[in-house]
C-alpha cells in the first residue's frame, strides 16, 4: 500500500517567477527589504507588500520545503515513510491581485515551476494546478497543462474573488475537470481580498478555515455535486471535526425543504473527501460519515494549526481508529480522490 500525504506544500521563492514568460515580466513580484535591516523580506505585487516567509515549518529544511533539492525532499519522505506528496501552494493561499493579467502571469509561472518539480520527482511529487479564474478559457488551458505535467487536482479556495463555488460561472471548469479526471480541492485559504482585509490578520480561523466549510455547505445545499456526479471534491487543511456539525445543519435544512437526506452516505453520494488531522475526534467523525472518504495530510513545510510532520505515522500508531480504517485513510482513499 502506498502512503499518501494529501496536503503537503511548497514555499515559493524567486525561482518560482523565473518560469514567467518574457511578456509577463512586468507582473513579476519585486523583493522588498526593510530599511531597518530586519530579517523579513516582502514581495511587492501591484503596490501591495506580502511577507515572503509568513508560515514556514521549522521541521523542514529550506531545500526540502522550497523544492530546490528534490533528492533531499524525497529522502525526507523516505524517512517519514511517505510515498507521495500532493503539493499545494503557499503564496496563493490568499488572493494577491484583482487584475486578470497579473493573476494569470503569477499562476501560470507557478504551474510551470510545479511541472518542473514533478519532472524531477520520480512520480512522487504530484500537485494541484492553479486556475486563473478571471478568464475561464485561460483557467481551462492551465488545467490541461497541469494534467499533462503531473497535476492530480485543481486548487481552489472557498470563495474565489466575487464567486461562490456553486456559481454557474464555475461550471465550465467543473466540466473540464471531469474530462481530465481531476478533483476540485478546496484548500484552507482566503480567496477574496476584501474579506481578507476586513478580518484581522491574526484571526486565521474565520479567514482561512470557515470559507471552505461554508463552501461545503453551500455546494450541497445548491445541489452542485449532484449536477456533476462524476466530479470528485476534496476539502484540504481544515481538519474534519466540523463535519458532524455541518452535516447536522444540512440534515435539518433538507428536512425543512422536504428533500431526501442521505445520512452517513452524504460524502459518498456527493463524491467528496475530507482531510483529517490527528487532533480530530476521528471515531466521532467516522460515525457521522464513513471511512472511505477521509484522507490525511501533514501540511509539510508550514507551521500552523494544521502542521504535523509525523501525522501519518501518529495516525497509524494512535490506536483510536481501527487498523482497517487507518489503512484506507493513509492510502487507498487518497488514491481514489486524486486518481493516483
Structural description of this entry:
The chain is α/β, with parallel strands linked by helices and 340 residues long. It has one domain (4-16, 54-338): TIM Barrel. The chain contains 15 helices and 13 strands. Strands 1-5-6-7-10-11-12-13 form an eight-stranded parallel sheet, with helices on both faces. A three-stranded antiparallel sheet has the order 2-3-4, with no helix packed on it. α4 (100-120) links the parallel β5 (84-88) and β6. α5 runs parallel beside α6 and α8 packs parallel to α10. The protein is globular, with a radius of gyration of 19 Å. The mean pLDDT is 93.
Strand content: 15-25%
Give the SSE order as H and E letters.
Answer: EHEEEHHEHEHEEEHEHHHEHHEHEHHH
How many domains, in number, for the residues? 1
- Give the number of DSSP strands: 13
Bin the helical content: 40-55%
Q: Determine Rg (CA atoms, Å).
A: 19 Å
Give the full name of the CATH homologous superfamily: Metal-dependent hydrolases
Distance between the termini: 12 Å
Number of helices: 15
What global shape is seen? globular
Amino acid at each position: 500500500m502506498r502512503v499518501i500525504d494529501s496536503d503537503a506544500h511548497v514555499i515559493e521563492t524567486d525561482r518560482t517567477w523565473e518560469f514567467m514568460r518574457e511578456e509577463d515580466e512586468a507582473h513579476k513580484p519585486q523583493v522588498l527589504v526593510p530599511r531597518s535591516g530586519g530579517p523579513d523580506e516582502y514581495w511587492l505585487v501591484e503596490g501591495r507588500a506580502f511577507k515572503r516567509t509568513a508560515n514556514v515549518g521549522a521541521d523542514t529544511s529550506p531545500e526540502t520545503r522550497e523544492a530546490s533539492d528534490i533528492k533531499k525532499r524525497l529522502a525526507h519522505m523516505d524517512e517519514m515513510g511517505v510515498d507521495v506528496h500532493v503539493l499545494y501552494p503557499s503564496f496563493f493561499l490568499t488572493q494577491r491581485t484583482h487584475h486578470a493579467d497579473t493573476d494569470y502571469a503569477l499562476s501560470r509561472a507557478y504551474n510551470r515551476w510545479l511541472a518542473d518539480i514533478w519532472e524531477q520527482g520520480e512520480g512522487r511529487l504530484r500537485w494541484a494546478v492553479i486556475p486563473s479564474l478571471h478568464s475561464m478559457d485561460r483557467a481551462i488551458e492551465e488545467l490541461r497543462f497541469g494534467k499533462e505535467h503531473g497535476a492530480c487536482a485543481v486548487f481552489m479556495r472557498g470563495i474565489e474573488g466575487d464567486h461562490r463555488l456553486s456559481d454557474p460561472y464555475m461550471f465550465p471548469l467543473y466540466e473540464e475537470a471531469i474530462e481530465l479526471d481531476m478533483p476540485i480541492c478546496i484548500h484552507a485559504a482566503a480567496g477574496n481580498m476584501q474579506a481578507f482585509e476586513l478580518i484581522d490578520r491574526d484571526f486565521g480561523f474565520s479567514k482561512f478555515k470557515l470559507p471552505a466549510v461554508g463552501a461545503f455547505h453551500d455546494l450541497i445545499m445548491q445541489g452542485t455535486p449532484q449536477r456533476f456526479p462524476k466530479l470528485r471534491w476534496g476539502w484540504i487543511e481544515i481538519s474534519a471535526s466540523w463535519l458532524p456539525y455541518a452535516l447536522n445543519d444540512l440534515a435539518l435544512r433538507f428536512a425543512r425543504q422536504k428533500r431526501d437526506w442521505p445520512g452517513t452516505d452524504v460524502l459518498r453520494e456527493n463524491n467528496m473527501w475530507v482531510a483529517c488531522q490527528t487532533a480530530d475526534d476521528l471515531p466521532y467523525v467516522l460515525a457521522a460519515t464513513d471511512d472511505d472518504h477521509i484522507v490525511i495530510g501533514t501540511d509539510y513545510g508550514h507551521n500552523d494549526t494544521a502542521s504535523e510532520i509525523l501525522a501519518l505515522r501518529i495516525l497509524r500508531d494512535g490506536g483510536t481508529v481501527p487498523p482497517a480504517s487507518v489503512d484506507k485513510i493513509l492510502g487507498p482513499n487518497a488514491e481514489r480522490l486524486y486518481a493516483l
